[in-house]
Amino acid sequence: MQKEIIDSGVLLNDQGKLTQVGWARHQNLDCNLEKVNFYQIKFLQKFRVKRWDYYAIFTPRRFFSATIADLGYAGNIFVYTLNFKTGDLYEEGIVVPLGKNIDLPRNSTQGNAHFSNKNLSLDFELEDNVRKLTVSWPGFHDNLGIEAEISLAQPDEHESINIVIPIGSKRFYYNRKINCLPASGRIQYGEEKEILSPESSLGSLDWGRGVWEYSSFWKWASASGFLADGRTIGVNMGGGFGDTSQASENAFFINGILHKLDTVTIDYSPENYTAPWYFSDNHDRLSLEFVPFKERVAETKLGVIDSEVHQIFGHYSGHVVCDNGERIEVKDLVGFAEDHKARW
Q1: Secondary structure letter of residue 33 according to DSSP
Q2: CA dist 29 → 91, 112, 168, 280 (Å)
Q3: 302: buried, middle or exposed (CB in 10 Å: 19+, 13-18, 0-12)?
Q4: CB within 8 Å of 238: residues ≥ 6 apart
Q5: Could you tell me which CATH number the domain at 9-343 has?
Q6: pLDDT over 80 (residue 1)
Q7: Concatenated DSSP letters for 111-145?
Q8: How confident is the model over 51-109, as pLDDT tens digits?
Q9: What ranges do the domains of the chain cover?
Q10: pLDDT of 18-59, one tens digit each?
Q11: H-helix or E-strand containing 219?
């Protein structure tokens, strides 16, 4: 019973309630978080609103990610890179009290994200259907430093998976995930420089806004890559939070066109994250085996913030079935799957 949102409008009404629940191919609801209304003491509400822009880049040689997040009472800035050949994974992150110097756009369709201090700067700009990422962190990993200038093309017809779901009676999640954005530019880590080409490199965006329960859990799986015939393929699957009866985030994309899935079962072992994972849907349109090759564990334990994520990198193989019935074989598609527990 997935419900597609067709009409444009605002996310929240004057009472702070969701105006619509469902999924969409493009972001068509204005994220009017100023209407949030779930605490009697109004000024406390801003400390429970979560906002983030998380970018991921898949190149032939590496995975690169940069995030600007505001958790209400603290910001979180982090960058990491994984070398596929050597398995070397390096990550740096900082917690920003009260989100000082963090700017995040109201919507994913316009506006820029920014953070800077004396040690680093991140800029995510959107202009003329191009998302431009600029990262400068000279002290990254023992002063080896990391720099990135990346452009991600996003034509108007490029579809994404957007969901609006309630969490309990007063909270909600508004999320947009865009896969398979052709990437160009450069990434430089220490003396190692990589030039990105849209024929071989793709980016994705996880744009999230909402009010969550303090104790939360979710699973998320994503990949952006190329099929043997040159078409792009992206997958996005997840759950574990909120009421997804009318809108799951489960979908795959062929050349930027969304193929919506209903329920996806994710079979894995929390006692052994590096064992194979299995993904299947309830309409026999997706069957994928995920074979891990690298585990990333990220923990944040700072009083009220207690977060632990196991992000597993690996290869997806199996098949998907498009809306028109075309069966597409998937082989060794590089992506990730994660298990995330948070008190935030």
Answers
A1: G
A2: 34, 18, 21, 30
A3: exposed
A4: 218, 219, 220, 221, 248, 249, 250
A5: 2.40.370.10
A6: no
A7: --EEEE-SS-EEEEEEETTEEEEEEEETTHHHHT-
A8: 999 999 999 999 999 999 999 989 999 999 999 999 999 999 999 999 999 999 999 99
A9: 9-343
A10: 999 999 999 999 999 999 998 888 888 888 899 999 999 999
A11: strand 215-226
pLDDT tier, 179 (very low <50, low <70, confident <90, very high otherwise)? very high
Question: Count of H helices and E strands in the chain?
Answer: 1, 24
Q: How confident is the model at residue 304 (pLDDT cuts 50, 70, 90)?
A: low
Q: CA–CA distance from 213 to each of 12, 292, 311, 344 (Å)?
A: 18, 30, 22, 8
- pLDDT tens-digit profile of 332-342? 999 999 998 87
- pTM of this structure: 0.96
Tokens matching residue 176? 């947009």
Cα atoms found within 13 Å of the Cα of residue 94, Cβ hemisphere only: 20
For residue 155, CA distances in Å to 7, 109, 159 come to 21, 12, 9
Cα-flanking dihedrals φ and ψ of residue 155, to 5°? -60, 155
Mark 140-161 as b/e (b = at least 16 C-beta within 10 Å): bbeeebbbbbbbbebeeebbbb
